[in-house]
Amino acid sequence: MSASGRALVREKQIPGNLKRVFEIMDTDQDGKISQDDLLLVTAHFGYKVKPTEAEEIIWEVDEDCDKMVSWQEFTEMYDRCRKDKTGCEPKRLYFIVEFMIIDKDNGGEISVEEAIEDLYLQHGKEELDNRLEDMFGADLDVNDPEAVLDLEKFVSAMRLGQLKQMREKTMNKTKSSSSLKKKSSSFR
Fold first, then answer.
1. pTM for this structure?
2. What pLDDT does 186 receive?
3. Domain EF-hand, which positions (predicted)?
4. Which of 110, 121, 151, 157 is the 20 to 30 A CA-CA neighbour of 42?
């Protein structure tokens, strides 16, 4: 499947996946995700989040300052994070959502098989091995049924990936800046 074909398949899946995840996270079915909703969902997945951390996660996304995440805020956050090339976008809620999208059965774990399907659609065959390694570690045996990630391990792996992305962006800026200085000094 071509890159554009994969992207189209994933793009078509996103609205349904986001709606499914939002409805699960909105535990009291009031149309918004509150701090309590977030605490219940993360506890269900065995991911310990302190109330103050849950409050911060909501705050990062809460555009209208009502201490809740509406459907519009939720989808806008997801789009911003997906398109973020700098690594600077706050992604704590995004990582939880991505986990829940991949963990379609809400079993609390992502298998290699589940991850492969999603990563292939996002990044293609060329990047698949690198992305799996980022997620599961360098010593991954793709045939090992015990190779699974829970939410805590997934979030940790994604945060490391975000830091790596920020570091690479900074290094590229530094290289560009130093090459510009060299070029400008050669014109003097």
1. 0.80
2. 54
3. 13-48
4. 121
